Amino acid sequence: MSKSSARIRLTDAAFALFDERGYEQTTVDDIAERAGVGRTTFFRHYRSKEAVIFPDHDRLLEQIKDRLATSSHSTALVAVSDAVRLVLLHYIDEGDLARRRYGLTSKVPALRDREIASVARYQRLFREFIAEWMGDPTASASLRAELMAASVVAAHNHVLRRWLRGESSDPVAEVDEAMHEVLALFPVPSSQEGTTDTGTTIVAFRTTRDLDVLLPSLRRLVEGGSAS
User: What predicted TM-score, i.e. pTM, was given to this entire model?
Assistant: First the structure.
């Protein structure tokens, strides 16, 4: 039996037993027996009964870190949006498994608590990235990073839940729009918008007036004064 085949059989067996007997009443031995494998094989694929239910968050978080790490200062927020889409696509690829998990975690408090703890890991990762991008150690900047990260995660979860409930036919488009809404709430600080650029300003136009006459007016215009 291939590694992927055994993992799929264990997952299918676990969710079938959870439906039949309930989560609390199902043991690791029950799952292994239903899947036709031994305990050793079960623990080769999953650390615990709970691990069968949830996606591999460690791997997903590493993928997010990799995507964020490829960004530059000017593309940081694009990378955040891409990372959110990456997580959503993982759940979409799971298909019915993601919906079965949603139904189960909605009914079992212990699983819901674990899911909340997992969400906190994503929010912490985004908060740390945004705080580093902002480069501002002040308390107000720290709060801003926290608020941005919380909004990013909330936007993803809102779209994901809509898709899980069958209310969204195009969740990818929805999450892109949701991220647009989130980032619009947090405009880039003026110090990062390039407004302090001291480069040369070039103005091109046609006129019959002598250049020596125009230069003083152009200089005042470029420097923010009014040309007469």
Answer: 0.77
